[in-house]
Amino acid sequence: MGKLNDKLKDVVRNWLNIVPAPGDTITIQETNTFEGNCFRNLLWYRGDASELHQYYTQTDDMMGNAKFWASDTTNDLKMRKIHTGLPAMIVDMLADIIVDSFNKITVENDNDAQKNWEDIAEDNDFKETIKQAIIDVFVECDGAFKISYDTDISKYPIIEFYAGTKVEYERTRGRITTVIFNNVYEKDDATYTLKERYSKDGIKYELYKNEHLMDDYRAIPETADLEEPTDVNFSMAIPMMFNKSKKYKGRGQSILEKKLDAFDSFDEVWSQWVDAIRDNRTITYIPEDLIPTDSNGNLLEPNTFDRRYAKIGNSTSETESDKITRENSDFDYEGMLQSYITALDLCLQGLISPSTLGIDVKKLDNADAQREKEKATQYTRGKVIDVLEKVIPKLVVTCLKCYDLAQGKTAGEYEASVDFKEYANPSFEAIVETVSKARPGQNIMSVEMSVDTMYGANKTKEEKETEIKRLKEESGIIQKEEPNIMSPIE
Fold it and tell me: Is 243 found in the same domain as 180?
């Protein structure tokens, strides 16, 4: 029976003439290295229209350079390219929201360590350092904190953050084991690069001259005083990334990367809008012999900005006379506005809500709709805070260990935690309204709480107690002294 089935399969296969599919061979060429990608993101954050134009007109995107910022006009026509600054607004606003919700750092069960950390944080302006680190990771994909010691500058550990373009990682089984910080020094004779290798075994220095490793890392003045510590058995570098890149393995991803085409389109829409406003200004048509002239008798030419007048030929008709006329153009405001709103929505989707940036594009949203939109901001903020809740305690513990070593002590064992405040909580009025709907006809707040909430610090404790007593008596609540069970019954 088995042989019969095999023969039938062979007959069917031969009859259908089935040929196995060949292996697919597809070649994709990346348009950017990791460093080039970070540089492009940085240009968008910097927000200089001239820099964006120069970059896109000098690079090949392998798509015909059809992007707005890569385009150029023909026949010497003038077109104004405007950058809205939206990427920088998004990054800065998210960083501000996260840092503003930063509450406190606690070193567990160690008052001396807590005081030491507060001194270290004040010396390093820790909040501002964290804010700049968040911005750098948002823009340049990832980065790492570097802790160093320089008694000429401070008696406390120095906290620095290196953005992704200045950092390299070495991994073992997928985990970062060494962080390499690159410092470039430009000299007349060559370019020197100092690589600081931070690992659990301490710090190792390597100096390169035009990419060639030198025997002595102290060969230039900037590195002459560096010493490799021998008593460190922990890493003094803490890497940080919020999103992992699928394009560059082992590296982070900027929040701007997937939105660059949307930002390009948004700038195009706004630039076209402004250009249309210029084109649709009222034009004054003047006969040629009535056009104003300069001191030399030459006709004045209007520029593309004011478009005040255009010349027309002289009339030769007996029934018509030369006269100045004005003409208004039609401007499609609704179409422009819809294009602007759509492009803006694409830029903000998944990152931040319009209301967070102070943008009201719908003009009709009620408070509930605005709170729903805030969820986009909350998701982005929550993802960043999840990372910071792991990174900041490591940073605190490492700083305290370095401070111990600098004082000639053995590095202690510490535990730290960081606390962030809630963001965009419903207002007290909204909470009361919601709970009241859930418990119709029921008291949801005690008299004491109602009085305290209403008057706050405007009344003294005695005045509040008097008001509470009056309200209770009006409600039929009578307070009597509790009887002593040991007293005789009368």
Answer: yes
**Hey, what are 12's tokens?**
């069917």
Contact 357, 344 (CB under 8 A): no
* H or E element that contains 148: strand 143-148
Domain count, the chain: 3
| Token pair for 186 | 């430009």
pLDDT in tens, 40-94: 999 999 999 999 999 999 988 888 788 899 888 776 677 789 999 999 999 999 9
Q: Residue 42, SS3? A: helix
* Domain-located, residue 41: no
Yes or no: say if 479 and 472 are a contact pair by the CB < 8 Å rule: yes
79 HSE (CA, 13 A, CB side): 20
* CA atoms within a 13 Å half-sphere pointing along the CA-CB vector of 176: 22
Rounded Cα distance, 349 and 353, in Å:
8
CB atoms within 10 A of CB 198: 23
Helix segments in 144-288, DSSP class H: 260-279
Q: What is the pTM of this model?
A: 0.77
Q: Does residue 113 share a domain with residue 169?
A: yes
Q: Do 228 and 324 belong to one domain? A: no
